[in-house]
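Recall the central idea of this unit: under ordinary conditions, the amino acid sequence of a chain determines the structure it adopts. In this exercise we apply that idea directly, starting from the sequence alone.
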Amino acid sequence: MFIGICGGTGSGKTTIARAIVDAVGCDNVVLVEQDSYYRNLADMPLDERHQANFDHPDAIDSDMLVNHLMRLKQGLRFEMPLYDFVTHTRSDEIEVIEPKPVVIVEGILIFSEPRVLDLLDMRVFVDTPDDIRLIRRLRRDINERGRTFERTLNQYERTIRPMHFEFVEPSKRHANIIIPEGSQTGVTLDMLCSLVREKLQAETRPPGSARASRSGPGPSGSVPEKV
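Accordingly, the structure predicted from this sequence is:
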C-alpha cells in the first residue's frame, strides 16, 4: 500500500506521516522522503550551491526515487541516500530500506512526477496557509540547518514561494484526501488513519475470513475523492 503525502514546505507532512505510523505500527510502515533524493551538488562551489533552486522538480533525482519505489513494489530492499542540507551534498552514509506492508512517500514535489503518482494507492495533500508554513520553515532552517533568518527569507522570496505556486499548489488536484492546515488532530486525519488501518487489515486477513467493516473504503477499495 503506497501512500503519497504532499504539501508545501512546512505544511505538516511529517506530522501526518507520524500519525499513520502510530495508527498502524512502525513494523508495518516504511517512510521514503523525497528530501533524500536531492541531486548531489558537490561539484559546485559552495556559494553557487546556496543559490540553487531546490524547489524545482529538476532538483530531484526522480529516476533514482522511482527506481527505489519500484524495488519496494517488488519486495526488495534498497539503499537510500542521505542528504546534508548544510553543505547541499549527499552524505557518504546510506540507509537500508526494507519493504513493509505500508510505504509512505513524502515530499513537496511528489505529485509533480507522473511516475511517482502512478505508484500511489492513496494521495494526501496537506493544505496549510502560507504564513504558517513560512514560520515553520524559518524555525527549521535556523534551528536545524544552520541558516540565518535573512538567508531563509531570501530563499523563500526567490524560489520557495514562486515554485510553490507553479508546481506544488497545482498538484493538489491529484489528491484523494486533503487535510486542512496540517492539523495534528481532527476528523480528516482520524479518517485517514482508519482507512489505512482497515486496508492493512483487509490485505493481511487470511482468505475466506470475514470481510472488513464497510466503514472504511468502498467495495472497490477506493478512497473518497475529497474530505
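The two ends are 20 Å apart (CA to CA).
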